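Appendix B. Chain record.
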Amino acid sequence: MGKVADLLRKSLIYAAVAVLFFAFGFVLFNFVIMPYMVSSGDTTKIPDLVGMEYGKAGQICQERGLVLSKQGEKYEEDVPPGFIIVQNPLPELVMKKGRRIDVIVSLGQELTSIPDISGLEADRATSILETAGLKVLGKRHESSEVFAEGKVMDIEPPAGSRVKNGTEVTLMISTGPISFVMPLLEERTVEEARYIIEDMGLTVGALEYVRTDLAIGTVVDQKPPAGCRVVEGQEVELVVSSGE
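C-alpha cells predicted for this chain:
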C-alpha cells in the first residue's frame, strides 16, 4: 500500500507541474511572445474587407504586408459590383505578413439579355421570355405591312437590353395589314372607279374591255368583288364596257 501511495503522490505532483508549465507557457505566449512578434512587424491583424471595394481592399492589404487574392465572383443583389462579399481568413485574426487573404467579389444583381423574338408566334415568344427569367406584362396589337397576323413585331424594352431577372416586358403583336371592305364599283365610270381605288390606298390593276349595251367606259365587273376584305396596296382589276 505504501508503494501505491507513493506512486499516486508522484503522479499528482507531475500533473500539477504539467499544469503549471502549461499555464506559464500560455501566459508567456499571449502576453510576452505574441506582443513582441506583433511589435517586431512580423505579423499583422487581418482587416475587415467585407463590403469594401476590391481596389481599396488591395491597397489596405498592401499597406499591412498582406496579399489580396480574388478567388471568384458571385451575383449578389444587395452588393454593388466590385465589392467584397466574403473573405478568408476572418478579420481581427493575427497572421504573418506576406500571407494571402482570399475574397469573393460581387457581380451585382444578375442581369439577363432580352432575346430577339420578332417574327415568332406570341405563345412561342412568351415561352422563350419566361425561360429567360422575364415576365410578359401585356400585349399590344397593331397593324403591320411586314409581319403576318399573330406574329410578334417588337418588344419593350427592346431586344438586346440587359435587364434584371423578373423584368416585365410588353409584346407588340401584328394584326396584319390594315384591311377594309371593297366597295361596289360596277356601273361607275372607269374614272370614278380609279379615283375610289386610289383614294383607298389600292392600286388599279389590269383593265379588260368587253362589248356590252352599257355606255363606253362603264365598269361592268371588278376583282376583288364588292364586300371582300382588301388591304392597302392591293390591286383591283376592272372589266370595262367598250360599248356595242
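Further analysis of this model is presented in Appendix C.
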